[in-house]
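Exercise 7.
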Amino acid sequence: MKLLKNATSPFARIAHAALIEAGIEDLEIQTVDPWADAADLLAANSAGRVPCLVLDDGTAITECLFIAAFAERQGKGALSASDAQSLSVAGIGIGVCDAAVQILIGRRIVSGDFADHAFDANPIAARRRRSVADGLKRLDATVLDAPGERLDLGTIAAVTALDYVEMRFAGAEWIPVVPRLSALRERASDRPALAATRPPR
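Solution. The predicted structure, written as tokens, is:
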């Protein structure tokens, strides 16, 4: 199997971490730039989005939740991706990631540059910032105090959301303090699924 991903995509990280936690073997990782209309990515996923998991028979599975569901069913590891609590937390985490990514896409549309903050004055950007902040607060109130023996999809998505927001918006005053979520990230930091997929700083 081959996973097409971008190193900084939070959705690709969630999928990759789920595959690792599920014990999927012989997984090839191909890094692609979804902004560049990479031919391999478009051949597998006409939407040009990562992640995209291409099976040995050529079947392509897109979107991180579908890849995680496949990983749980096919894997030999201990991924937990289908209980109600895990799915609830994962949904909040993915919502945080989506709102954060939408801010960056807005910047790219307005000025062509992720680092240009002109878009941030737009009311849509303010709503996305609110979604990120509210989602992080909700995660802080919802996540388990420590990961169990099985690393569940909720923990993967929650840690990914916090890492992504802090990477993309380092030092922003609108990011809330989330002590329980930060503590969970610290306790889970040495898990292979999270350590191996940590985005570059």
